[in-house]
Amino acid sequence: MYTTDLSGKDKKKSEPTPLKQEDPKLLAAFEARVANDEFIEPKDWMPEAYRRTLVRQISQHAHSEIVGMLPEGNWITRAPSLRRKAILLAKVQDEGGHGLYLYAAAETLGTSRAEMIEALHSGKAKYSTIFNYPTLTWADIGAIGWLVDGAAIMNQVPLQRTSFGPYARAMVRVCKEESFHQRQGYEIMMALAGGSREQKRMAQDALARWWWPSLMMFGPPDDKSPNTEQSIRWRIKRETNDELRQKFVDVSVPQAEAIGLSIPDKKLKWNEARGHYDYGEIDWEEFYAVVRGEGSVAKERMQARVKAWEDGAWVRDAALVHAAKRTAAKIAAE
Amino acid sequence: MAKLPPLAQYALRLGDDALILGQRLSEWCGHAPALEIDLSLANIALDLVGQATHFLGLAGEIEAKGRDADALAFKRDVLDFSNCLLVEQPNGDFARTIARQFLFSHFQELQFGALTGSTDPRLAAIAAKAVKEVAYHARLASDWVARLGDGTDESRARMIAGLDWMWRFVDELFVLDAIETKLASQGIAVDKPALRAAWDARIDGVLAEATLSRPAPHRPVLGGREGHHSEHLGHLLSEMQFLQRAYPGATW
Ligand SMILES: [Fe+2]
Ligand SMILES: [Fe+2]
Predict the structure, then answer these.
(1) How much is the pLDDT for A233?
(2) Radius of gyration of chain B (CA)
(3) ipTM above 0.85, yes or no
(4) Which of B19, B21, B23, B26 is the best residue to mutate to test the A interface, defined by the most A CB atoms within 10 Å of its own CB?
(5) How far apart are CA A180 and CA A176, in angstroms?
(6) Which of A30, A276, A330, B38 is buried deepest, with most CB atoms within 10 A?
């Protein structure tokens, strides 16, 4: 989901990146540690490809948290009760906090937050495709919490045991908050599904729009996800895209049924032999288009991020200049 | 709207101040100059929405006509809102937002500090919790006034402009009308004019640190407590109350 490798998958042929030859002894020792489920810490030796994959994955995860504040932030000022307003504010604030921990974890690998943000704004870095869909009604806030945060949990729980220590520890903090996010979303949906005809319509419509994009969050199918194998070997990932997606479908279907909403998939059916739900074909063309930046509100999302950053430049400058003045005054006084 | 009992009216004013400023601050969510600032502003907004919930809940309870905090927040029009004009002012740039917060949070901290001694135990209890929150808001805003005032030329110019914009609404904070005068004489409400000297000292102290001086005096702009607001409040309400108005009777 937030951490799916979205780099260059839409290209016909990805150019082979020249990797530096690693010292075979160091590499073998590293692989042994990872296979032994030890945590790799920032000061430890690591292969360049491992470092690069992690920076890409963690920063992409961080960007997703930050961009993800926008679709939900869109409804804070219109939340229908004081309780819902407070919950949503706290939730979106949590997401910002997740972004902070993740940027900090990525910075331990030698890339600054400013560089990562620059990469996001220039379109070089990706973020989860899910946030390029609009939040049209209040029910979308329910659907996001229930499905999007639900998918996040599915993905992030195994990452608490990912091989890079700072990332794993960030995930432990994040996971503590995610179940609250999922619950508040489902609770919104429950209230709507049990409400008036108009509310029920809102809820059903939100589910219909968010279901497929939520499944896409887990990324391309395993046979089209070439980096999965190495990421699993290095314990950066611990389960494949398709495994996680299946898990998500299996828990979400009964949740929808419990509140009387129907999932927009005619092929959805319990498969006794597999012990899983079968589900229909995902529109991968749409997925790759959104990865390319052609999601329906992708332009608005980036415009909002860039505007906030540029409008805030004078504030960040002032804070730096002020801090420097303070330090100078302190030195002069000594 | 029928006239509320004086105590309910007082609780309503306290709640409306918090609600409207919380609503304004939540507009920043996702758009602040830095991630850390985004989190701070959301945090303040969250505290204020919490305070509003308590004060409005109490107002409804005293009124005893079946209106809860949500009914009061989402089903009144401009004339029945009794917040001060300062809190409804649009965010503007970050300096203007900070100016508003700075002037208001120091007032609120002094007010809640005094309210903890109210003879009404319900008001005192809400104030006791809230005063800790607003002390943090006041400190955060003061730090930013100092940073922006004594930062770059641009931040200084913006901070001066922000304070200048908000200054005309300051006097209203300290007005004690007939309702509150009576409640204050019973030890229920805060004697707000008595807070002015302490507030002035706090503001002047921070401004000195920020190498700024007070904005030029301005004839006080008043009216919020009686429902006579700026043009901005109606727009704020139309956004905040949209769902409750569009789907009357629904529960969320
Ligand atoms: Fe998150
Ligand atoms: Fe979340």
Answers:
(1) 86
(2) 18
(3) yes
(4) B26
(5) 8
(6) B38
